[in-house]
Each structure stands twice: as structure tokens, then as C-alpha cells.
Amino acid sequence: MNTPVIPIDSWRHVFKLDPDKEIGDEALDRICMSGSDAIAVGGSSGVTFENTVDLLARIRRYELPVVLEVSNLDAVVPGFDAYLIPMVLNTPNPDWIIGQHQRAIQQYGYMIPWDLLIPEGYIILNPDATAAKLTEADAGITTAETVAHAQVADKLMRLPIVYVEYSGMYGDMERVSKVKRSLSQAQLFYGGGIRTTEQARAAAAVAHTVVVGNIVYEDLDAAIATVEAVKAAPLN
């Protein structure tokens, strides 16, 4: 495994901000000064070069890492600390595993900042999520199949991140825990449906890194409270 350009292994809490969603200056200030370890920028739809540039410029006023999760080649913006490259493992459509990646490299390989790329093996487990529908992910897989997908990413592909994504719904923490116990070198990210400190604490106990997204736009105070909850939780 190549060592990521930024120390993701020290990240416990990450806020994920969607360029296609409105966030005021005061709210952004609270998010960026909350003590979260990093900001990830990305979304499944409506992400453009223009709204990504705008959000990056606003976040850059603060001293914390900011990474772009690449979901749309037209929205790739220079200036991020790193670029997360998702590979959806539980889809029968190879386009979302390697196809789009190959075409992007063929077209833009000469200008790709290879040392800033961090590949992540995505396992999408909410069938109603936009990301699941877009990528045709088989979100109905069993726990055993989920663990096997994670081990493909960890042990066979040697990806630095395995990302268990429930996107919009709170997931099965027992399943997430089994995934974590199966990993030998990858960092386990969990994202999806965290709206309370109790949920944040439970996720932090079974995943290396907890990603908090939608609640930022629904209940800012609750979102901010997840930072301390995650940081205080022991990792099992």
C-alpha cells in the first residue's frame, strides 16, 4: 500500500460537505472550527466545477485538511490537499469499479497529480441512496458478502480506505464492526445517517473514521456535537 499524502490514519471525525447544498458563512465557520479532523467535499448529484471552486475557496480560510471525493470529472478542481477516488465494490457494473477510472486516465493521465490520489473501496448498503441507484450497487448483500468485499479491497487490492456507506440511513453497527475486524491495513470509514451523539459514539467504536454529512444541513448543533462524541469514544 502506498502511504497517503495526508495522514488519514489520524482522522477520527470528518465532515462531508456537498457543493450542491447551501451553507451560510456562520455555519461553515462553526463546522471548520469544530475540531473535526478534515473536510471532505463531494456529492452524488449536482456537483459542478463552479460550486466546488466556491466551496473550496470558503473552506481554505481555515487551517484543516480539505479533500475532494471525485464523483464527476467535470467538477475536479485543483487546490485540494488530496483527491479520494471511489471504487464501488458491490456493483455488477464494472464502469463504477474501473471503467470510468480507465477512461479518465486515458484522457487526463498527463495532468493527474498521482501523489495526491487516495483510492477508496466503497461498499454502498442503502438501496434508496442516490449513490446506490447511480452506481447500480447491490445494497442487499449479506454481512458475509460485505466482509468479503472489504477484504478484497484490503488484502487483494491493498486500498488505503474501505468506506462502508449507508448514505442517508443509519447502518448496522454489528456489520460495520465485523468489517473492521476483518481488515489488516486499510482505514475503515463509516458514513450514513448519523444524527445524534449516541449514533456518532456507536459508529466511532467500530470504525476508524466517522463521516458526518446530511445532519450539517438539518441540525447544525447536532452536527457539531458529533465531533466530541466521536473523539471521546474508544475504538473497539
Automatic annotation (TrEMBL):
Per UniProt, Mg(2+) binds at D18, S44
Its UniProt entry gives the catalysed reaction(s) as: sn-glycerol 1-phosphate + all-trans-heptaprenyl diphosphate = 3-heptaprenyl-sn-glycero-1-phosphate + diphosphate
Pathway per its UniProt entry is: Membrane lipid metabolism; glycerophospholipid metabolism
Return the InterPro entries for the record: GGGP/HepGP_synthase_I, GGGP/HepGP_synthase_sf, GGGP_HepGP_synthase
Which Gene3D superfamilies does the record cross-reference, listed alphabetically? Answer: FMN-linked oxidoreductases
A GO MF label: transferase activity
Q: What is this protein called?
A: Heptaprenylglyceryl phosphate synthase
- Organism classification, top ranks? Bacteria, Bacillati, Bacillota, Bacilli, Bacillales
